[in-house]
Predict the 3D structure of the following.
Amino acid sequence: MQINENLIRSVVEQVLSEVRSKQPSTGTSTASPNASSSAMGRFGLFDNVDDAVRAARTAFEQLRERSIADRRRIIDHIRRISIDNCVELGTMEMNETKVGRLQHKIEKLKTLGEKTPGVEFLKTECFSGDYGLAVIEHAPFGVIGAITPVTHSLPTITGNAVSMIAGGNSLVVNPHPSGKKVAAEGVRRFNQAIHADLGIDNLISLICEPTLETAQQLFKHRSIALICVTGGPAVARAALNSGKRAVVAGPGNPPVVVDETADLNLAARCIIQGGAYDNNLLCIAEKEVFVVGSVFDAMMSAMERAGAVRLSAPEIDRLTQAAMQVVGEGNDKHYAARKELLGQDAIKLAAAAGRSVDPNVELLFGETSADHPFVQTEQMMPFVPFVRCRDFDECVRLAQEAEHGYRHTSIIHSRNVRNMTKMARIMDTTLFVKNGPCMASLGLGGEGYLSFSIAGPTGEGVTTPMTFTRERRCSLIEDLHVLGGASRLSS
Ligand code: NAD
């Protein structure tokens, strides 16, 4: 998708200034959530957890009285706003979070509007036989607490809201502090449209000043029936230890294996498409590549032909110094990506490496050892390390080590079906992609549907409305058998 970022910025700024000039000076209905504290308590915006949960509970009780068709209408509003406002909200997200790429911020919101699973995913199972009927329905949990990441602030909320409301729930969101403004603006627009059409407010409630403490309050709140966290290792651990039922969409470090049978040109194009998308912020994105030695040099040339820029060993050293730092103590000592370069453009990373590249370059790459920080760390930067391996088995062994047991995503480029099966079994990841870019696994250029919460640790996989439902069984007993049973008892 080719979009001129400056053009979009200027169009968006023009639209925003026109909208502002038409806004009334008082009142909450069109005021930005940041403009006035009087907006608090309406259209999903709250300054404390108790009020947000209480309002979301009221909204849930109202939704409970409504039909599935009404849920569909609500979701249609969220989808429509996500598509119609993708440029404005995507630009807002880019300007606030300062990570990733504008065209992908916009594309993510638009695609979410088109590809998120809604009420059509709800299923009812039925058993019928001599003893009557058993119907298994999928009922809502109630109010769900959602913790969302900075990497896709509004997209995660949008996807969560569609799935959770399709399942009949309401939600309270504790967004990442660095993406709280766009989160609040999106939530305000969704609620405003839902309220205008169906009279229900605060179905998606949000803590406007989120902190780790407000996240903890959500985890512990007695009116929160379920939590859904999307984020890195710390929040995944916190959710699993919270004592509450949790859907955990945790971190990944997706490895790619390229064997000697692969179409190297295709592999290179796919690695650039996935690894450079939103400057490598996707949790499913190609983070490190293991290549069979006999095709390693040919693969590096294929990457250059496809438009990526190869860094030399000294350049990689300089980039590593600038981009990585050691954190933690004792056994927990490990490398982590520095904030300053996280999600930044390839040109900025290249400058840190002492290299000047064309601004259109999307991805940098280079040869490293398997224990290099860029291999072992979920870098979220458009530099992808390539490791030369003896053979396919070594590729898979090193890929498994680099994935750290997250069982999130792995990718293979190969025409050898036995190798595909072998790697799939060993990696045992929630998403496994063959001969495509990572996003094919979320229905973008592949089959299936889209969600930005992929629950690996707790096993739900790519979340859908069914993820956010409880199973409920309704039994109807066949009269004749009740009578037959009664007569047997009395005889
Ligand atoms: P992050 O872990 O820094 O933050 C995620 C959210 O958790 C934020 O709202 C943050 O405020 C909160 N948080 C962090 N520590 C917490 C704690 N101890 N208690 C309560 N809340 C806490 O992650 P990020 O940088 O915003 O996002 C990137 C990470 O998210 C990456 O690791 C990526 O793989 C992961 N991610 C996973 C998925 C998935 O579907 N599995 C999707 C997107 C991102």
Remarks:
- DSSP finds 17 helices and 20 strands in the chain.
- The pocket of nicotinamide-adenine-dinucleotide is lined by residues 147-151, 174-176, 212, 215, 230-232, 234-235, 238, 249-252, 283, 378, 452-454 (CB under 6 Å).
- The mean pLDDT is 92.
